[in-house]
Amino acid sequence: MPTPEPRLLPWPAAAAGLDAPARLRHLVAGALRTGRPLAAWREPGAAHPQLLVARSLEAAYTGLPPALDAGAPAGFAFFPFRDSDHYPALFLPADVRYDPARPDAVAVAPAARELLPNIAAWLALPTPAELAWHHSPQPAPHAATEAEYTRLVRRGVAAIEAKEVLKVVSSRAARRPLPPGFDPLAAFDLLGAKYPQAFVSLVSVPGVGTWLGATPEVLAEVTADGHFRTVALAATQPATAAASPQTAIWRQKEIEEQALVARYIVNCFKQLRLREYHETGPRTVVAGQLLHLRTDFEVDLRAVPSPASLGTDMLRLLHPTSAVGGMPKGAALEFLRRHEGYDRAYYSGFLGPVNVAAPGVARLFVNLRCLQVRAHEAILYAGTGLTVDSDPEREWQETEMKLQTVAAVLG
Ligand SMILES: C=C(O[C@@H]1C=C(C(=O)O)C=C[C@H]1O)C(=O)O
């Protein structure tokens, strides 16, 4: 059965003078004012951001990862590292959409038809000077001191030495004051301009909170031309005049750490009895001021026995990957649950649009280099992959460097 087309709602006379970014802000203001979840995102290399508003919070709750096939609903996935009551797995249905490349109309999906008069009413109001961003009612997570974090790293190394785990990715939260007049949408634009190759996002959900990020890591992509893609991203060093992607030198520890992540992905393919995949790399890639090692994996879906379910099956096997949890998965996650000392919430979960650009097109990213916006402060998150040779002081420095990516919007 063909999906009914969305209704295109033209902008009212009141919004006639607004340019495309001002129209996006106007729609965001309306969504926030009426307590609706929203997601704005800018895909790597894209000229414009996209905006999606869900008709209600209830419509966004989900227990399961999204299905990556053409027949599944369209929306924006926002998944925590670990599912919990405070930070639920969300899939924001694509009820109301705005694409600044097509600035003349707002698209309203059939499921949200009854909202049409309501939306027409917010569009006709002036944009408020201050937007009412949603904040999490949860207390701020514990922010580890340097002494606490280096202790966690030493524990991780001891667990590797004791062969409890092969690799574990420890992480921490850091609290920073918000600069006066902090504007999450302006920060979103700034992240987009600063990191053209990142997936830049701004998600705000009632009762859950507001998150901003600029991640370099693809989790699972299904392309319009029928390919599945994922990456093994790991190892970190600062990009400097001496260390560019062409000249960077990697230590044995870093090469092995990234190889473990690549091996993990190959094991996922094996579990699905998939033998036909292309593997490219590892090569050095730039993410903001950092360099990482990345191997790209690609599967031609025409060549696999069950193309419709491969993306969904891989997503379920991949999350959380060994780039953010560790290996073996169960033991590494148990180590983190016992020792990490805070709730990662949506950091190192995943996010992105599914079936929004077109049916069967999905782009999910690991939620790294992100922050949570609270009333007066931002919570920033970063982690580091540990191996047997990890030096606690260096790992702390590495989290400091990773925090800089989003700290750039805090002035
Ligand atoms: C965990 C993070 O990053 C991950 C860990 C990396 C590492 O251990 O070197 C590198 C890239 C990411 O896969 C983070 O940015 O918080």
TrEMBL record:
<dbReference type="Pfam" id="PF00425">
    <property type="entry name" value="Chorismate_bind"/>
</dbReference>
<keyword id="KW-0413">Isomerase</keyword>
<dbReference type="InterPro" id="IPR005801">
    <property type="entry name" value="ADC_synthase"/>
</dbReference>
<dbReference type="GO" id="GO:0008909">
    <property type="term" value="F:isochorismate synthase activity"/>
</dbReference>
<dbReference type="InterPro" id="IPR015890">
    <property type="entry name" value="Chorismate_C"/>
</dbReference>
<feature type="domain" description="Chorismate-utilising enzyme C-terminal">
    <location>
        <begin position="146"/>
        <end position="402"/>
    </location>
</feature>
<protein>
    <submittedName>
        <fullName>Isochorismate synthase</fullName>
        <ecNumber>5.4.4.2</ecNumber>
    </submittedName>
</protein>
